[in-house]
Amino acid sequence: MGSNSFVYPVLGFGSIIVFLYISFGDLLTVNYKNDPKLSFVERNGTNFVVDGKVFYVNGWNSYWFMDHAVVDYSRPRIREMLQAGAKMGLTVCRTWAFNDGDYNALQIAPGQFDERVFKALDHVIAEARQVGIRLLFSLVNNLQAYGGKTQYVKWAWDEGVGLSASNDSFFFDPSIRLYFKNYVKTILTRKNTITGVVYRDDPTIFGWELINEPRCITDASGDTLQDWIEEMSSFIKSIDRKHMLTIGLEGFYGPNSPKKDTVNPEFWAADLGADFIRNSAPSTVDFASVHIYPDHWFKKKSLEGKLMFVAKWMRSHIEDGDQVLKKPVMFTEFGLSDLNKGFDPVQRDRFYKTVFDVIYESSKKKGAGGGSFAWQFFVEGMEEYNDDFGIVPWKRASTYEIITQHTCRLAKAHGTIASQKDSLKHLCSQR
Fold first, then answer.
1. How many angstroms separate the CA atoms of 44 and 55, rounded?
2. What letter does residue 145 receive in the DSSP assignment?
3. Are 216 and 225 within 8 A, CB to CB?
4. What is the pTM assigned to this prediction?
5. Partners of 96 in the beta sheet?
6. How far is CA 414 from the centre of its chain?
7. Could you state, in chain order, the average pLDDT of each consecutive group of 10 residues for the chain (431 residues)?
8. Which of 146, 270, 298, 360 has the fewest CB atoms lying closer than 10 Å?
9. Are 273 and 224 in contact (CB under 8 A)?
10. Is 159 among the residues known to form the active site?
């Protein structure tokens, strides 16, 4: 008995260590105290600025970060994607900071949160901070995926306080506006359980996006959506003055815009209740956002026709940023579908290059074209989460080359930011 009295405590202690490693090994292997020093990205007129330097974004979308950070087996994908992005010299990732009432929901009911999922979001921020990637967080979806405005309307209806069963009541129902404000306040004032930094004080966060692709088709005049944007953007700024804010628009011109007939893809785009200029104008909106999906918008155009439209679409919005809005314009989603008849990956390469060329053209003049975000990037083994736009960017050499070449020419034009210096030494040394 005496000889075993020392063995049992040792085995017990060893079991605890093994348990901790299995449960939290992904976190224990990272020393978050040695994270790169990040500064807040700010706006100076039509440009983004960080550490006194003009900053143009080569970014991407990985909407799935928080969802995959919830579960042990998929959590390492976040680090893998972020490290790969940093290796390509990418600087900002746009991702969801919402999941309303869905599987692995962050907000399970109005004002009720799953701490397990909130810790997953903490993990995403901590991992991004460690590799020097900033995050653009979207706060709700206009679409039904991950709950969206549909879920908010359902909650109000189920509680007997909803004014209408229309999804667009998200924008005008006082009870739903209060639900959303409570959600936003909870996000902005969250203290990260890993880093100890409150979200609104964390420069890892590039900025906030109010809503992904807002449309309010029940009020084509745009008044309902405009009122919501003004109220919510002011509310966010009352809590967080350190971060920039954008809306999440697709970029369509409204019914009173002279560009509705000359730049919009087709007539229907002016009747969705959104207006790029009007919606982006409030002083509480720091930069404008635009999406680029020629496949969704045109069914009969050739690839050449689509690429010509893309360049025209982008230059029109950059012109608006330079001359009308006097603020940066970010193309926060761009994608080309692989479901097109006769699709060839070369077509996507040409599409990417068209987008990057217009951004670079603007950057050389220190113009308002502040950056672009490909939709969307994954790592291997995630095919079931893909759509017809997603890619693993390093699997195709020519695509990888186009992306990294854009990184290097932006760096050559304006220099590197602190978090990029090490990764770009090797990446751009031979270009």
1. 10
2. T
3. yes
4. 0.92
5. 138
6. 23
7. 38 40 42 76 98 95 98 97 96 98 96 98 98 98 97 97 96 98 98 98 98 98 98 98 98 97 97 98 98 94 96 98 98 96 95 98 97 97 92 97 96 77 78 63
8. 298
9. yes
10. no
Q: Could you say which of 127, 213, 250, 319 is catalytic? A: 213
At residue 381, the pLDDT reads 92
DSSP assignment of 251-290 equals: ----TT-GGGTTTSSSGGGGGSS--HHHHH-STT--SEEE
245 touches 285 (CB < 8 A): yes
How does DSSP classify residue 150? H
CA distances from 307 to 111, 280, 294, 335, 375 (A): 44, 25, 8, 12, 17
Does 266 qualify as catalytic in the annotation? no
Rounded to 10 degrees, the C-alpha dihedral 189/282/258/331 comes to -30
User: Which element (helix H / strand E) includes 108?
Assistant: strand 107-109
CA distance 162 to 176: 8
Q: How far is CA 20 from CA 13, 24, 66, in A?
A: 11, 6, 22
